[in-house]
Amino acid sequence: MASRRNGTLYLGVTSDLIARIHQHRNGLVDGFSKRYGCTRLVWFETHDDLQEARRRELHMKKWKRDWKLELIEADNPQWRDLYETLF
């Protein structure tokens, strides 16, 4: 999730991406993403195993910001909000 292009980034794990994005977009989740306006889905990846997804999240949270930006821009160079592509 991002606040805007090259803005604040939020990284998390969920078992229901559509519901979680809805919560973020509508300010229903208190915390970092609400405080910094992270409402745009600019990148995501899926995993079959929740534990694997959590390991990936923890690993990525240690990444430098530049690495995260490169990952986003490799698949979404325009920083489009990908929420609508989920339907």
What structural class results from the helix and strand content?
Answer: mainly alpha
Percent helix among the residues? Answer: 40-55%
Largest sheet: none
Overall pLDDT level: 96
User: Kindly, what is the distance between the CA atoms of the first and last residues, rounded to a whole number of angstroms?
Assistant: 18 Å
Count every beta strand, where a strand is a DSSP E run of 2 or more residues.
0
Tell me, briefly, the overall form: globular
Estimate nothing, just give the exact number of structural domains.
1
Q: What order do the SSEs take from the amino end to the carboxyl end, as H and E?
A: HHHH
The percent range for strand residues is under 5%
Protein name: GIY-YIG nuclease family protein
Domain GIY-YIG: 1-71
Family: Belongs to the UPF0213 family.
InterPro entries: GIY-YIG_endonuc, UPF0213_domain
Notes on the protein architecture:
- By secondary structure, the chain is mainly alpha-helical.
- The mean pLDDT is 96.
- The radius of gyration is 12 Å and the shape is globular.
- The chain has one domain (17-86).
- The protein has four helices and no strands.
Topology:
Layout: H1 17-25, H2 32-35, H3 50-61, H4 65-75
